[in-house]
UniProtKB/TrEMBL annotation, chains A, B:
This is CRP-like cAMP-binding protein. It comes from the Bacteria. One of its GO terms (molecular function) is DNA binding. The keyword Nucleotide-binding does not apply. It comes from Chitinophaga dinghuensis. CDD domains: CAP_ED. Keywords: DNA-binding, Transcription, Transcription regulation. The keyword Lyase does not apply.
DNA sequence: AAATAAATGTGATATAGGTCACATGCACAA
DNA sequence: TTGTGCATGTGACCTATATCACATTTATTT
């Protein structure tokens, strides 16, 4: 592979990770991938550091390479409600703010030390406009994301706290390695005390 | 406008409605629109008729021209949980099933007499592959849909039954003209009795 | 290694909202 | 127009989950 854009010489493993991610849905030539790569910037965040805070302008979307991020809102009583976790291979941002170009209403914070690849809204749009393939990629990604949220809504509508917990455990076992239980509670919409009781009684 | 594809001579108003819908995000020539149109089929459904039932194969996506549809699941106690309503200008299907090409786990039912335009999965994919514009259109549509679901999740996480009800009332006042209250309850994740009490006490 | 802070567990109590039962109103079918 | 069946309202009671308070365990920092 020829490194045309040297200023973007990420670690080889990181690049390959991104490329593999794209190539799950589309095929890319080396040249195409190199072209795409120039729009991404690598960034590391320490545990509990923010990529976004409430009120910040949102200009980028983040692809997680390593670690884990969470996006959440704080309500009027300062309780956190988690919108999304992002493990490696996931995209995350405050999409509402990104699309409507309004200030963030969320916090985007590293749960553990994390590495992301960032792309700005404009660069992503440009990439989609220039390369039909990429527009396709992101349309399909979006469709999966949509379905995921539908599933979450359904589990909130139909399941008890316990059922939702067990579904999550089954669907994303990796999360439980990384994320404190109070965060899982804030994701499930249950108090941390209730969550704690759910699995202590379970065994 | 030249009617190249006569077998698709929908009522002029219907065609224009679809065209306006696309042209909110992209621009189309008459010829392009005529080409697109050939992939759509018009269909009318009576109140309480099904477009999909649990177990059906899901081959199509539906664009509502007139009326109102709801998609919902039935749980083990035969309680219905509503995933989505679709008023005119909205798309609806069992997306999970459509994308994964598995049998429907939902019912798709007309709340009132309804007219839709149907497109098959294959035709939509073909349209997206052939016309970059259309791929763009659906990517952006998807992105808005995603944001909408995020908002719904947030309101389920942060709000009381009453707050959720009021948010819905404010965001989609049209729904309340058309949809029985028990369906609104099934959408909000509240019992119909509780919902009834919410607004009787309100006044 | 000690000190401090964060996360978790657990009991006692409170409450939003669910469930059940039945009454009333309203729509459409015969 | 009358009847049959949905949709809605309302009371009485019940239950899952929240809240508060504090103890315990586990990470972080110095």
């Amino acid at each position: 592979m020829v490194y045309t854009y040297l200023y973007n010489a990420f670690k080889c493993a990181t690049m390959q990770f991104l490329r593999d991610h794209f190539e799950k849905l589309i095929t890319l030539t080396d040249k195409e991938f190199q072209y795409i790569l120039q729009f991404f910037r690598s960034r590391r965040i320490m545990k509990k550091q923010f990529l976004l805070q409430e009120g910040d302008p949102v200009t980028q979307e983040y692809f997680v390479v390593k670690g884990c991020l969470k996006s959440y809102v704080l309500d009027s009583e300062d309780r956190s409600h988690i919108m999304q976790f992002a493990l490696p291979d996931w995209w995350i941002s405050d999409y509402q703010a990104l699309v409507t170009q309004s200030p963030s209403s969320m916090f985007l914070e590293a749960v553990v030390p994390t590495q992301v690849l960032c792309i700005t809204r404009e660069d992503k749009e440009r990439l989609c406009a220039e390369m039909h393939k990429m527009e396709h990629f992101f349309r399909i990604k979006n469709a999966y994301g949509y379905i995921g949220l539908q599933r979450r809504i359904l589990s909130m509508l139909t399941g008890s706290a316990k059922e939702r917990y067990e579904q999550l455990l089954q669907q994303y076992p990796d999360l439980f390695q990384v994320v404190p239980k109070q965060d899982l509670a804030a994701f499930l919409g249950v108090s941390r005390e209730t969550l704690s009781r759910l699995y202590s009684k379970n065994k």
